[in-house]
Write a structure and sequence with these properties.
Order of helices and strands: HEEEEEEEEEEEEE
Number of helices: 1
Strand content: 35-45%
Oligomer: single chain
Keywords: Repeat, Signal
Largest sheet: 13 strands, antiparallel
CATH topology of the largest domain: Trefoil (Acidic Fibroblast Growth Factor, subunit A)
Distance between the termini: 56 Å
Helix content: 10-25%
Radius of gyration: 20 Å
Subcellular location: Secreted
Number of domains: 2
CATH class of the largest domain: Mainly Beta
Pfam family, one: MIR
Protein name: MIR domain-containing protein
Number of strands: 13
Structural class: mainly beta
CATH architecture of the largest domain: Trefoil
GO cellular component, one term: protein-containing complex
Length: 220
């Protein structure tokens, strides 16, 4: 009889653990996490943050960063990484107030800014920067501005550039050739129009998956 109760106790304990793990996994599904790959959608302009191997003809001359209305474009994939010289656990939710890098997968550069003027509107230039290994400098660092504890996938955030305090935004102006129709991405000092971004399509890594697990994703 004692053995029977031991088995019942074990079954109940395992069930509770599995239930807790399921709840925890569901909770983590709601967040953007370290190591995830995503597309960032501007809430006001409905365009996705984008880059490509096209240099600015003015300003820094670095790789240009734009925004595109095209949803299915591989040049809009960005990986969420820790600040230079720092480490974040793969699958760990990004906290509000964390400093991150956004690494452009296609060109191995990082989202970057500095005190150069943008080519169309004369605001602060946003570029993509880094060496062949994707290593840049403090100009690649962005502070996640959001409410609550962590960056939720269904809630807009702002990205504030650490070195200059400028917010990632859209000017509303568009380029001609060779990037015809793409929107100018800028940094501005006031966190108002055009500064809200949300996680759109992506491949999101979660702690419960482990290094060998299959990441959950939506259409890239």
């Amino acid at each position: 009889m004692t053995h029977f109760f031991e088995i019942v106790y074990l079954v109940v304990a395992v069930s509770l653990i599995l239930t807790f793990d399921s709840i925890e996994a569901a909770r983590n599904n709601k967040f953007v996490t370290c190591g995830s790959v995503l597309k960032l959608l501007n809430v006001d302009y409905r365009v996705r943050l984008h880059s490509h191997d096209v240099k600015y003809g003015t300003g820094s001359g670095q790789q240009s960063v734009t925004a595109t209305e095209v949803q299915e474009d591989v040049n809009s994939h960005w990986s969420v990484m820790a600040a230079t010289g720092k480490h974040c656990e793969r699958g760990q939710p990004i906290k509000c107030g964390d400093t991150i890098r956004l690494h452009h997968l296609s060109t191995n550069k990082n989202l970057h800014s500095h005190h150069f003027q943008s080519p169309l509107s004369g605001n602060q230039e946003i570029s993509a920067y880094g060496d062949d290994k994707g290593v840049g400098d403090s100009g690649d660092h962005w502070l996640v501005v959001c409410s609550g504890d962590s960056w939720r996938r269904d809630t807009p955030i702002k990205l504030r550039h650490v070195d200059t305090d400028a917010y990632l935004s859209i000017s509303g102006r568009t380029f001609g050739r060779p990037i015809n129709g793409q929107f100018e991405v800028i940094g501005i000092s006031n966190p108002y129009s055009g500064t809200d971004w949300t996680a759109a399509e992506g491949l999101f890594i979660h702690p419960t998956e482990g290094d060998s697990g299959e990441p959950r994703h939506t259409e890239l």
